[in-house]
TrEMBL record:
Organism listed in the record: Mycolicibacterium obuense
PROSITE patterns per record: THIOLASE_2
Name assigned to this protein: Acetyl-CoA acetyltransferase
Alphabetically ordered keywords of this record: Acyltransferase, Transferase
Catalytic residues, chain numbering: C89, H336, C366
Length: 381
């Protein structure tokens, strides 16, 4: 198998719901990062074999293979194909895996992976508005569980004995770390500004400075009257796109581009779909085994903050160092543009690794239906 590297990683700012990116069509927003990726790497568009694009709510603006229409919106040659992947919140992380598989196997040489979600225009749950995706046999198997992620987050909090105070403290931490990262310029090199008719959007919009656990404690539970999950300890509804360029180490030399990271291993696994959001725990174990690494070898962990219990349960079960977990904040502060989030997290992690000389990074993402992707990358020194 060929050694596979990521040579470019760029994202838009993550816009808040009805914020600066809300007027952007998903294809047009995708086109911006596609073209910026080639501009930054200097790779000729004619060398691109395929575009693998993550998107979750594939209806309305995001229907009919948004990956293909992103390529056309970017003005790329019509011969370049595009496909759209849906593995729920892990869609663009899975897109990266598919791109790596194609390059690693020798079937393709240069593949773009990434994703998009403009949740301001295509609301969460829009794809289920006219039907029930689970079917009677699935519902019967799981005692007519509603497959509501908020209720799953409540179940996780109970099983792992995570109090409302602990969840809110963690959520305030996310905002504080994200604000510090933004102020230090940690996001500047990874973000491409988006020019709209009214403004230039150049920073992530979701950060709430001065957030404290005490302030969060005043928010009402969202899913159960006696629950612990609320808007402040859940990920934000967001808009955004991100793109990664994948090739071989040998081809990178030929193209004159500098690899950012080496793809060490990827894994995907399923878990109990009623708890739904716990699969990052076994996925982490699986990917570390595949990479031949121990937990202590990893210098940074990106565990998507769909709800605060997700990274906290992961932390409790793995025994990882909390200081290495989401050190720049996570989706609670920075937002969660569903189909783009896997590529956004990978872009954020890669740049953090390069800025701080971190050899190994591990990213994992909980996904609707009870699955999770996990990926390990290694810094190319």
């Amino acid at each position: 198998m060929r050694e596979t590297v990521i040579v470019g990683a760029v994202r838009t700012p993550v816009g808040k719901r009805n914020g600066g990116l809300s007027d952007q069509h998903a294809a047009d927003l995708s086109a911006l990062v596609l073209n910026e990726l080639l501009e930054r790497t200097g790779v000729d568009v004619d060398l691109v074999d395929d575009v693998v694009w993550g998107c979750v709510s594939q209806v309305g603006d995001q229907s009919s293979n948004i990956g293909r229409f992103a390529v056309l919106a970017a003005g790329w040659p019509e011969r370049i194909p595009g496909t759209t992947v849906n593995r729920a919140c892990g869609s663009s992380q899975q897109a990266l895996d598919f791109a790596v598989h194609a390059v690693m196997s020798g079937q393709q040489d240069v593949v773009v992976a990434g994703g998009v979600e403009v949740m301001s225009r295509v609301p969460l749950g829009a794809a289920r508005a006219t039907g029930m995706p689970y079917g009677p046999k699935v519902l019967a198997r799981y005692d007519d569980f509603s497959f509501n992620q908020g209720l799953s987050a409540e179940m996780i909090a109970r099983r792992w004995n995570l109090s409302r105070a602990r969840l809110d403290e963690y959520s305030a931490r996310s905002h504080a770390l994200a604000a510090a990262a933004q102020d230090s310029g940690a996001f500047i090199d990874q973000i491409m500004p988006v020019f709209t008719d009214d403004d230039v959007i150049s920073v992530d919009e979701g950060i709430r400075r001065g957030t404290t656990a005490e302030k969060l404690s005043a928010l009402k539970p969202a899913f159960a009257d006696d629950g612990v999950i609320h808007a402040g300890n859940s990920s934000q509804i967001s808009d955004g796109a991100a793109a990664l360029l994948v090739t071989t180490a040998e081809n990178a030399v030929h193209l004159g581009v500098t690899p950012l990271v080496r793809y060490r291993a990827g894994a995907v696994t399923g878990a109990d779909p009623t708890f739904m959001l716990t699969a990052p725990i076994p996925a982490t174990e699986k990917v570390l085994h595949k990479a031949g690494l121990e937990l202590g070898d990893v210098g940074v962990f990106e565990v998507n903050e769909a709800f605060a219990p997700v990274p906290l349960a992961w932390l409790a079960d793995t025994g990882a160092d909390e200081a290495k977990l989401n050190p720049l904040g996570g989706a609670i502060a920075l937002g969660h543009p569903l189909g783009a989030s896997g590529a956004v997290l990978m872009t954020r992690m890669i740049h953090h690794m390069r800025d701080n000389g971190i050899r190994y990074g591990l990213q994992t993402m909980c996904e609707g239906g009870g699955t999770a992707n996990a990926t390990v990358v290694e810094l190319v020194q």
